[in-house]
Amino acid sequence: MITIKDEREIELIRHACMLVSLMHKYLKPFIKPGVTTKELDKLAEYFIVKNNGVPSCKGYEGFPCTLCTSVNDTVVHGIPDNTKLKKGDIITIDVVIGYKGYQGDAAWTYAVGSVSDEKRYLMEHTKKALLEGIKQVKVGNRVGDISSAIETYARSHNLGIVKELCGHGIGTEMHEDPEIPNYGTPGSGPRLKPGMVICIEPMLNFGGKDDIYLEDNGWGVRTLDGNPAAHYEHTVLVTKDGYEILTPRLDD
Ligand code: MF3
Ligand code: CO
Asked: How far apart are the CA of 77 and the centre of ligand 1, in A?
């Protein structure tokens, strides 16, 4: 069921989302060679709790940590551990924060020191694919318009789409209807209405299809060919005249 949020709910989601943006900004200076993903996770948890938020991933279906830290060929849901980041890595930090029962969600891929041109290309165009998807958020459009814009952008830049994973609605739950696939047909799917809150999150790589596998820990999703993947996600409110990005980037 797709829910339409009222003003009070939107204010709480807005607050949760602001904590998400502030947490990314807080964490960015620590994303350097030598830091472990577990250290980043501890910093994130400290920041969230200090600001009266709830680290919603921790304990969600048994996920053990505050952040998903997905390095290089990990697409999503990497579990923080004692691995040190190295110059040339890319890492996606994905976080969901709760505030008074409402959730905000955003993922951004960061470069650790300077990275290869290939990784830079992947990051730049995954971010742009997200923005192309967001541009389709307007009343009267459908979910398929978002999906198709992302797919068209990714394909025209020779990037592969991780089709098994998709965006979602958000509210009191981190995952609500509708699903927002990163591929699809214009004019198809549910219609966008003011007061809907959705997470749009392209996950792109250099592969074709059937190109991921699940790690033995049951969480980390990685590319089969070992090539890197990038992932950018914003929580977006559908407004009567377009959209509002509730998780603006404060860090670049
Ligand atoms: N942003 C992620 C998602 O939308 C967060 C889920 S991670 C989990 O899938 F650990 F909480 F499952
Ligand atoms: Co999400």
From this structure: 7
Ligand number nearest CA of 234 is: 2
- Backbone phi, psi, residue 133, to 5°: -65, -45
* pTM beyond 0.85: yes
For 133, half-sphere exposure in the C-beta direction (CA atoms, 13 angstrom radius) is: 34
Q: From the CB of 30, is ligand 1 less than 6 Å away? A: no
Taking the centre of ligand 2 as the mean of its atom positions, its distance from the CA of residue 183, in whole angstroms, is 16
Tens of pLDDT, residues 158-170: 999 999 999 999 9
Q: Judge if the beta carbon of residue 231 lies within 6 A of ligand 1.
A: no
Which domains are delineated in the chain?
7-245 (3.90.230.10)
pLDDT, tens digit (0-9, with 9 covering 90-100), for 181-197: 999 999 999 999 999 99
Q: Which two tokens stand for residue 47?
A: 């920041």
SS3 191: strand
Helices (H), 136-186: 143-156
Q: Give the number of whichever ligand sits closest to the CA of residue 57.
A: 1
Closest-CA residue to 229 (of 203, 210, 208, 211): 203
